[in-house]
């Protein structure tokens, strides 16, 4: 292994693990609150953010986070039922609308067009040390944001009225969750790409479910599964020369299948 | 008495509809208040406004400083992917002291389920777990939103007995919501009938304190025998058929709280074509023991029986002065008008918050009427007629029924005609889902 090779593998591993251990903080709520479509819509909008960043010569993180926040706010505004559409249909419209418009926008940028695959599926082997720094800084912000509102978020997830009557404000906490999600999308776009961000949110949390009897255990298990998937995916990618982002997701899916099978065999009582 | 929450002129719009209009509400320390009303009458909206989940579109809500609420929701929207044991649930949103937690679990008799998943509990255990969580906040006010839904009658009665005990032990005020008159507990200090606005409000009669009721039903009937006193004396135009509560609500929406008032009790009004005039005391519901289905039907079809109340005011129940004596669990309730001459003199409309009628309970056994509402001479259909009606709900309730013909003066007969005129309407207006 040459020094250069080791260096980019280390950066890839650090970036991948950084995103993979951050996603479950939001992923558990995405699963508990059935927000997978919401995650999709926010993530797909990221492509538009990429195009915008390149046009305006901004850092990709800034454009993606900005567009993701706007998307999240639009969804929240339309979600109150006045649109006459179910939330899932509405999110389907917004999610794929954002993706299509993002693809068109990117196609007008000659340089970006060449890199389309990188934006859709990530290019973890191309991350720089500054990317790694941004990812881990963002990871800490997200963990602190969610961790500090953990009890309140759990209460509101169980029943929003419980939270209100306890003097909490579930609306504000949901906005915190939404902002954190937009931030995560920005962090993850270079690692797994716009199309696979939701996979990092949902799959490790879902894989952790049969192994957990408490919300905290589920978060911990999801983080462990996420980290294992990131490293395992990189190794797989190196061994069989597969694209890195999809390899990470594939390993997490294998973990999901394994946890279901193991839970079935051990008959772990589902809590 | 400490005022815990006070709402004045509360109006709430929810998803584009005026759900509550000009509601005045207050609850004091140690009170048990029950809000009844049909589905869609704004009960939950009122609760959400009081807890702060919904913002009023008009009016004010004042809470006591540092008010501690204990909220018991109807159900949890617990996704199966959410692993939550009872003991972890009790730690939401604040971690409970282990000792305190065990004490509450012991008190509610559910110590053994602490490690069980919340989703695997039976209805009664589940409701107690929710209650335990609420109690751990050391609340000054417990809010129970249809807490006994899905529980059988025995379970509901036990649960309400528990609530009453807790109030006695801790002095916690209790605000309960029900869409069903039959689960209104007898321990309520005050009952509020809600249908977009406060239709009526007053103290339920604690009849089970009467010795003859204990003799008949034992001491275990922690029942829901309540007296409703409709304190409104306004009238509405009932020409349009009332098919559901919302229709009623919408029709009155433009009135706001300033309803057109009739000339007062006893004068009747042409606008009450399809309803009992304000001068009528509602008759008594007599129900067959253990025959709930029949009970519901009978109620729906006999005039002035609890159906009027539980159907909400879908019809006259919400608008007129009459008292309703629901018989619950097959309790036979004697007519309040057995000897109208002996009825205590009227106190006018019910004064909210004061259990003014409790003292008259012992009079029951002497056949006296506990009714203190309105002027007695106007007090409606003679008892015999009522009893016939109630016993044969589907039968002919002709105005010239024996009771009316035999005992009534002319104006009473007219009153009885009015009552019978609404009979065909009542069953239609019985809202779906409100049958026990």
UniProtKB/TrEMBL annotation, chain A:
* Localization per record: Cell membrane
Q: What is its main location?
A: membrane
A UniProt-annotated Pfam family: ABC-3
What is its membrane topology? Multi-pass membrane protein
Entry's transmembrane regions: 12-33, 45-78, 90-112, 124-146, 176-205, 217-236, 248-268
What keywords tag this UniProt record?
Answer: Cell membrane, Ion transport, Membrane, Transmembrane, Transmembrane helix, Transport, Zinc, Zinc transport
Q: Which InterPro entries does this chain map to? A: ABC_BtuC-like, ABC_TroCD
Q: Which domain of life is it from?
A: Bacteria
Q: Name one GO biological process term.
A: zinc ion transport
Q: Is Ion transport there in the keyword field?
A: yes
| Function (record text) | Involved in the high-affinity zinc uptake transport system.
Q: Which family does it belong to?
A: Belongs to the ABC-3 integral membrane protein family.
Q: List the protein's name.
A: High-affinity zinc uptake system membrane protein ZnuB
Q: Which organism is it from?
A: Primorskyibacter flagellatus
Phylogenetic classification of the source organism? Bacteria, Pseudomonadati, Pseudomonadota, Alphaproteobacteria, Rhodobacterales
Automatic annotation (TrEMBL), chain B:
Keyword Ion transport carried by entry: yes
**Domain of life from the UniProt record:** Bacteria
Cite the residue spans of the region called Disordered.
251-278, 293-436
Q: Where is the ABC transporter domain?
A: 5-220
Q: Which Pfam families match?
A: ABC_tran (PF00005)
Alphabetically list the UniProt keywords: ATP-binding, Cell membrane, Ion transport, Membrane, Nucleotide-binding, Translocase, Transport, Zinc, Zinc transport
**Which interval of the chain is the signal sequence?**
none
**Where along the chain is composition biased (Basic and acidic residues)?**
251-261, 317-331
**Where are stretches of biased composition, namely Polar residues?**
351-361
Q: Which InterPro entries match?
A: AAA+_ATPase (IPR003593), ABC_transporter-like_ATP-bd (IPR003439), Metal_Ion_Import_ABC (IPR050153), P-loop_NTPase (IPR027417)
- Whether Ion transport counts among this entry's keywords is yes
For biological process, the GO terms are: response to zinc ion; zinc ion transport
Query: What are the GO MF terms of this UniProt record?
Result: ATP binding; ATP hydrolysis activity
Please identify the protein, giving its name as recorded: ABC transporter domain-containing protein
List the top taxonomic levels of the source.
Bacteria, Pseudomonadati, Pseudomonadota, Alphaproteobacteria, Rhodobacterales
